[in-house]
Amino acid sequence: MTPILYIVIPCYNEEAVLPLTAPQFRQKLRDLTEVGKIHEDSRVLFVNDGSKDRTWEIIRDLAASDPHYIGISQSRNRGHQNAVLAGLMEARDKCDITISIDCDGQDDIDAMDQMVDAYLDGCEVVYGVRSSRRTDTFFKRFTAQSFYKFLSVMGAEVVYNHADYRLISSRVLKEFANFREVNLFLRGLVPLVGFKSTTVSYSRAERLAGESHYPLKKMIALAVDGITSLSVKPLRLITGFGVIVAMLSFVGVLWALIAALCGRTVAGWASMTCIVCFVSGVQLISLGIIGEYIGKIYMETKQRPRYIISERTWEEQERPRT
Fold first, then answer.
1. Rounded-to-integer distance, Cα 222 and Cα 31, Å
2. Pairing verdict, β 309-312 and 43-48
3. pTM of the model
4. 5-230+305-318: CATH homologous superfamily?
5. Domain boundaries, the chain
6. For 13-64, what is each residue's pLDDT tens digit?
């Protein structure tokens, strides 16, 4: 049976690029439908993440012009990961497969052909992996690659150079719905679900319009979320480092006692200050890491909703006019 595909596209302040990329996504649906890979009922699902510009108005206009465009709007901005999750959960009962992709045009939409082929061959999850970052600046390329390597070193299971461009079957999404984390890091959570998976490589292009919503600050925040949500390795590193410092301190105490007994003690303000500053710094860093985990636990125990959908384009069209 030909699968129904929903292309899930998170949008935040994308009024500049959305009119350019929306027709490309629609054309991809046509191409895949014409060759018999997907069903005619496939859709392009936009997720408005509380945009402050005309993004939602553009989505509504697209939905009114073509039934293959549909959209949902969150009640407020909740972040990229929550927006992707909202779209996936909205689509899981309406389709057989979903492909999540950003709307900036940087991810090659032609890779969707290979993703669908891999699904038809039996894969339930297909990860889009960037084979080239030639269009990125050196700083962007260095920080992005360091991001994935650092996550791996810290114990987070991620696919190298994979962002959120992936195909997921509805079967996997139904199991993924059982993951109730409030602190979302989809790149690390999806591999935990399991099922047969593969990768598809593509070259990353330049953003067609608008500005990137993932500067270095957000990249670091995402890395922290990923590590603390998926791994306890930082806590073990603190324990190991604490043992090393304790051993060195014990050696220092023995040295101080021997020196005192031998009468060779000399008041050393500089050495004492360095030791105090070092130990204090270690303690503060350790408390900060522990505090980050406690904060995650605090947010998880509240069990607040991860997204709230305030509007759906199809509900507006079905609403009777007065």
1. 35
2. unpaired
3. 0.73
4. Spore Coat Polysaccharide Biosynthesis Protein SpsA; Chain A (3.90.550.10)
5. 5-230+305-318, 233-302
6. 988 889 999 999 999 999 999 999 999 999 999 999 988 989 999 999 999 9
